[in-house]
Design goal:
This protein is mainly alpha-helical. It is built from 27 helices and five strands. This is Membrane protein.
Length: 703
């Protein structure tokens, strides 16, 4: 409910509407907790491939217990937020609040000598030696993470063992992309090759891509794995074959470049969350000058020229709720996650589209945080967006768009949400989010429309529907209506769908891969007209046997929200698989046993109850959903508008071909620590959280 509208309504009406709004927010938060509890409760059934028919009272007890735990976490988060906000309000209202807040601003920026631990708003006394140790560790942590260059250096040192001992990690995708480019290169150089024909088998048949989508003039490049990445990876491999005789050197160089890019993205985002670089602040402890006539203001003095102190200081006025830099503990935990979590470390050299998208998303997430924090963070008008931030937003959007096809959906929705939440900077959002999306997505669409490349088969996005049909065909074939069978016949061989069905993965049903190409999807003969009947046939089958259909839906999605479910494909797979360990020229001989040993240690770690959860993507997905529920209960609409991409990514997971596929959870895992910092910082309150009421000095027309 709009706060300005409520301000003009009678008091009883405002109170009633506020209560209704709060109740709805808590209801939605409870539903999020119920979804997590449901996925956890049915997890044992799905892992046993038993289905919902085997639901027993023990599953009901698990549901209730998990719901209590999740709702309890949300309630504690909301309560801690209210307590922190009340404490900040009382401090600001006191006469000495300005001086105390000024000192706190300086101490928070450096955290140099506090002889106590601050946990959950409480001060815990420590023995002198422990106090000195933690004070020194805090100073070292802050100094090591003072700017993005230092953070990048720390990450580079901590990650150095990855590219030097493991070289590269990859799976089947990059080999398919390399094969695509090689066929295209052969065509460009005049080599005759098969195209459409019953006995032909070309790269587009591997995914597969339906023949009705192929252009009349032969072309071997597709947008199946994103055309830009296909060209970059394929060209690098081709150059490597020309210079060294194999793809291996090209793959290693690509992995090293991604490793550098990953470090930069994480360092850039961490710098914005740790140090708030858009707020004027000296590199050392600033001289503070409280304004006792206006205790709600803070003032910091920065020398105009450090080389000429006689020129005097430049005074910066900060509001009482000006955010302070992150403390040593928050910095240490986030850096520990980046340095030690296998989800991050293995992703730095994994040549698949998801890690590249995840690192670009992390960079973009930090840039959007700067826009979020400068929304109404000045008394007269929002702070002008830094040119480096504008340029970085454009570049990060482009990298996301060329690495994941669903990125354009996320960006388009984010444009709408940003315009609703921050209308005064509409030009900025159109320039940095909408324009790159239109140009990149439009250019690829034009290439597909012109026949220069082949678009990705839409069957790829219908994994959930395929699993529903295949499970009914396998478990209850008599339930399939005759009319639905007729509609599906030109598209799928239903008997082969039943044989190919695997509850955790839709790829076999849609005939992806080189093996078993005779099964299921009739990609050679299906037409666009045939595909128009697919949705109608699917709906008929769901109506005929809804229980089996729901079994299939939950079986391919529950693992993303069940922390007890082991990953179907962990990131360690890309380090230790046949493609890396056997099917190449010389990479397989480089630290072969060490590579297998590293993957084995990570797999053993991941199997440890509770302690192993930190290596699983669904652990971070579940906690992120709970933090989002708490933000909803607190009605932090601006924060929710900025965090909406995280919820959209969860939707991508549910519709993904496989259950609990860790590479789809990487973006959420990478930014989870930053999300926690944001929630804790917002608890102090400030103009960036809700924004001031209309008509105040903060709401200047120039803002």
């Amino acid at each position: 409910m709009d706060r300005d509208h409520l301000s003009h309504s009678p008091a009883p009406t405002r109170t009633a509407l506020a209560r209704v709004g709060a109740a709805l927010c808590w209801l939605i938060a409870a539903l999020a907790c119920a979804w997590i509890a449901w996925c956890t409760a049915i997890g044992p059934l799905m892992r046993a491939d038993a289905g919902l028919a085997a639901f027993r009272w023990t599953n009901g007890v698990a549901f209730v217990a998990m719901f209590v735990v999740c709702f309890g976490i949300v309630w504690l988060l909301v309560r801690s937020a209210h307590r922190a906000a009340d404490s900040a309000t009382r401090t600001t209202a006191s006469l000495g609040g300005a001086a105390d807040s000024t000192a706190h601003l300086s101490d928070s920026a450096h955290r140099t000598s506090a002889p106590a631990a601050h946990l959950a708003g409480r001060t815990i006394a420590l023995p002198p030696r422990a106090a000195r140790f933690f004070a020194a560790a805090g100073r070292l942590t802050v100094r090591a993470t003072r700017n993005w260059r230092r953070i990048w250096l720390v990450l580079a040192i901590g990650w150095l063992w990855i590219p030097t001992t493991l070289l590269v990690a990859y799976g089947a995708d990059i080999l398919s992309q390399t094969r695509e480019f090689a066929w295209a290169w052969n065509q460009w150089t005049g080599l005759e090759q098969p195209y459409i024909g019953f006995f032909s088998f070309v790269p587009m048949d591997i995914y597969p891509t339906a023949h009705y989508m192929w252009s009349t003039d032969p072309t071997y490049l597709t947008d199946q794995h994103n055309i830009v990445l296909t060209v970059i990876y394929g060209a690098s491999a081709a150059l490597s074959r020309y210079l060294t005789g194999s793809n291996d050197a090209g793959f290693v160089v690509l992995a090293a470049l991604q490793w550098l890019f990953a470090g930069f993205c994480c360092a850039s985002a961490a710098n914005r969350f740790f140090n708030l670089p858009w707020i004027p602040r000296t590199a050392s402890a600033p001289h503070t000058h409280p304004d006792y006539a206006h205790p709600e203001r803070l003032r910091t003095a920065t020398p105009i020229d450090f080389a000429h102190p006689e020129r005097g200081p430049r005074i910066h006025t900060l509001t009482a709720h000006t955010p302070v830099p992150a403390g040593p503990l928050a910095r240490a935990l986030v850096m520990l996650l980046f340095l030690c979590c296998p989800l991050v470390t293995f992703s730095t050299i994994s040549l698949t589209k998801s890690p590249l998208f995840a690192f670009a998303f992390t960079w973009w997430f930090g840039l959007m945080y700067e826009l979020y924090m400068t929304h109404r963070n000045a008394p007269a008008r929002p702070q002008r967006t830094r040119p480096v931030t504008i340029a970085a937003l454009v570049v990060s959007c482009v990298v996301m768009l060329v690495s994941a096809k669903y990125a354009w959906y996320i960006l388009m929705i984010q444009v709408v949400l940003s315009l609703l939440a921050d209308r005064r900077r509409w030009r900025l959002y159109l320039l940095t989010l909408l324009l790159p999306t239109v140009l990149v997505h439009g250019a690829i669409a034009m290439l597909i429309g012109s026949g220069a490349i082949i678009g990705g088969d839409p069957i790829e996005s219908r994994g959930a529907q395929l699993q529903l049909i295949a499970r009914v065909a396998q478990r209850n074939p008599g339930a399939i209506p005759e009319s639905a069978a007729r509609k599906l016949a030109p598209i799928f061989n239903i008997d082969q769908m039943a044989q190919a069905y695997r509850s955790e993965d839709a790829d076999p049903v849609k005939s992806s891969g080189i093996q078993s190409k005779k099964v299921s999807y009739r990609w050679r003969s299906v037409t666009a007209e045939d595909m128009k009947q697919f949705n109608a046939a699917w709906l008929e089958i769901v109506r005929a046997d809804p229980q089996t259909a729901f079994d299939a839906l939950f079986a391919k999605s529950y693992g993303y929200f069940d922390v007890f479910d082991p990953p179907y494909v962990p990131m360690s797979y890309y380090v230790d698989n046949d493609y890396v360990q056997q099917s190449n020229t010389w990479i397989k001989h480089y630290n072969h046993d060490w590579r297998g040993g590293v993957a084995h240690v990570v797999r053993q770690w991941s199997r440890i109850p509770v302690l192993g959860w930190v290596t699983h993507g669904n652990f971070y997905v579940t906690l992120t959903l709970l933090i989002g529920a708490a933000e909803l209960a607190l009605r932090r609409w601006h924060a929710l508008s900025w965090h909406m991409p995280l919820l959209l990514l969860m939707g991508v997971m549910i519709t993904a071909p496989a259950n609990n596929f860790e590479r789809h959870m990487l973006p959420i895992a990478f930014v989870f620590g930053f999300l926690c910092i944001t929630f804790a910082r917002d608890n102090r309150g400030g103009s960036w959280v809700h924004g001031p009421a209309r008509g105040t000095a903060h709401d200047s027309p120039r803002a």
